[in-house]
Specification:
The two termini are about 25 Å apart. With about 525 residues, the protein is α/β, with parallel strands linked by helices. About 40% of the residues lie in helices and about 20% in strands. The longest helix has 17 residues. It has 19 helices and 16 strands.
């Protein structure tokens, strides 16, 4: 693999540029999903993996199979149902991890095992309590064991940016000799910078004698805000695979953002002289789907997918854009699937327009879910003057939650508040076909409603860890969107709800979180690696 150096084309240069491919390894469903507040259930993971397929990423790291029965089943289901990309599972350098990983990914037509072990001195001494030789031997054994199942084996040197360089080279060379076809060099704690990290990759190419027998990959974290810059520096110095996530989600401050990596390479192909196979028009829908599933929005000024990414308010910018878009836009919004405007639907809009717009937004509903969502859209259109894209996404999300989390369903809610009375609430829910009802008072209407739901569902010891509410769109008739985080024992669940009544939206979110807590034991992680 070449280092990718060389001066960029000069002004006016029109020569055709022959470019090398950069492999896009998406770890949204593994590293991204294990971060607090971002957990997805199996149905959401499969739907998101199908969108990653349309995005045309090369590899989907679907999860960490040995971490829990739920994660194993999710990886297995994705391997069975998602064709096209390689389906990868993570495994520590332990035979039991690798065996479990293979049980899950073997159902894919293109399976990959990704095994890892820490190589930095602090990790070896404090966490693993092993010597350099012991760690190198474990790495070799793990790769050899994985090769018994598949030739597609990736090996990672965890915390590489804080590892002695010559030792990295020693372990990498041994892993390639053992059969690893991809070697990942992770900046696990986001410690490095572009100059240092690029130089590390160049050093590996210089010192590892068999480096040409494997693809060199990088996996950078964003603790110092340099994950994308470090990844691009690595590409310039020989790396040909980048591990990244949609919206840059992940442990702590997150991972390198897929959309930023891909659009840097595409927009500045004259400089990088590489390409990816990503269908970039699916980037914005993928970002919106992830936001819909997690209830966590991206910041407005987030590059590529933020609400303001293509907004121009300054007068001089607006004037330039009107005369020639390239004056202040270096990429077309449509190139990432961003239309720049919402299709406004109303009560006279038909099913075809409704389904068509959902599809453009990356949302697919079928059967009863579609019927219920369309009926909800009609009801909302009667209450609102106009229905925006954000409303449609909220409706689809509400329908998805009602289908998948049906243990407890809200039937009725009555609130009483006044200047001379203590706020009270009456809540009626359906539980396994039985109607349950309770009444009580609280410090506020929501406090009363939440307390009743706890009693009716047996969740008295659940703790409200976070609660926020906002408007889905602008206007006094906008839907309210609520997000609730509940904690019970060692588990945490995020609930979401939308409604034109913000109190009802909040109660829906609370009940959604309760439903998720009821099934969270299956998804509870045994270990949480941060390769």
């Amino acid at each position: 693999a070449g280092a990718g150096h060389g001066p960029p084309p000069g002004p006016g240069r029109r020569n055709v540029i022959m470019t090398e491919k950069i492999i896009i390894f998406d770890t949204t469903l593994r590293d991204g999903e294990q971060s607090p507040g971002f957990s997805l259930n199996m149905k959401e993971k499969i739907e998101f993996a199908q969108l990653l397929k349309r995005l045309n990423v090369d590899i989907i790291e679907a999860g960490f199979p040995i971490s829990s029965p739920g994660d194993f089943e999710s990886v297995k289901a994705i391997a069975q149902q998602v064709e096209g990309p390689q389906i990868c599972g993570l495994a520590r350098a332990l035979e039991k991890d690798i065996d479990r990983c293979w049980e899950a990914v073997q159902h894919s037509k293109r399976p990959r095992i990704h095994t890892f072990i820490a190589t930095s001195q602090v990790h070896m001494e404090k966490k693993l309590k092993k010597t350099q030789k012991e760690v190198r031997d474990l790495a070799v054994q793990a790769v050899k064991h994985a090769r018994q199942y598949t030739e597609n084996v990736e090996f990672s040197t965890e915390d590489a940016s804080r590892t002695e360089r010559d030792y990295i080279c020693e372990v990498v060379e041994a892993a390639i000799d053992a059969g690893a076809t991809t070697i990942n060099i992770p900046d696990t704690v986001g410690y490095s910078n572009p100059w240092e990290f690029g130089d590390l990759i160049a050093y590996i190419f210089e010192k590892v004698s068999n480096v040409s027998q494997a693809v060199i990959s990088v996996h950078c974290h964003n603790d110092l805000g340099l994950a994308v810059a470090n990844s691009l520096a690595a590409i310039r110095n020989g790396a040909r695979q980048v591990e990244c996530t949609i919206n840059g989600i992940g442990e702590r401050a997150g991972n390198a953002s897929l959309e930023e990596i891909v659009m840097n390479i595409k927009t500045r192909q004259d400089f990088f002289q590489f390409h990816t196979d990503v269908n970039t028009e699916h980037i914005y829908p993928a970002s919106r789907m992830l936001t819909r599933f997690t209830g966590i929005s991206v910041q407005p000024n987030k590059a590529i997918v933020g609400a303001n990414a293509f907004a121009h308010e300054a007068g001089i910018h607006q004037d330039g854009i009107l005369k020639e878009r390239t004056t202040y836009e270096i990429m077309r919004p449509a190139a990432v699937g961003w239309t720049g405007s919402s299709m406004v639907l109303g009560k006279h809009s038909g099913r075809h327009a409704f389904v068509s717009r959902l599809s453009e937004l990356g949302v697919t509903l079928e059967g009863p879910a579609l019927e219920n969502a369309f009926n909800a859209f009609k009801e909302l259109a009667d209450r609102k003057k106009t229905v925006f894209d954000e409303d449609l996404i909220a409706l689809a999300d509400e329908q998805t939650r009602s289908v998948e989390q049906a243990r407890f369903v809200l039937q009725d809610l009555f609130i009483k508040i006044g200047p001379d009375m203590k706020p009270s609430a009456t809540v009626r829910i359906q539980a396994n076909g039985e109607s349950l009802e309770g009444s009580g008072t609280g410090d506020g209407a929501l406090d009363a409603a939440f307390s009743i739901i706890k009693q009716l569902t047996g969740m008295q010891d659940a703790v409200l860890a976070d609660y926020n509410v906002g408007a889905v769109t602008v206007g006094t008739d906008a839907q309210g969107s609520a997000r609730v985080v509940l904690k019970k024992d060692n588990r945490e669940a995020v609930g979401r709800g939308t409604d034109t009544d913000v109190i009802r939206a909040s109660v829906k979110a609370f009940l959604n979180a309760v439903n998720r807590l009821c099934t969270a034991a299956e998804r509870e992680k045994v270990v949480t690696p941060s390769v």
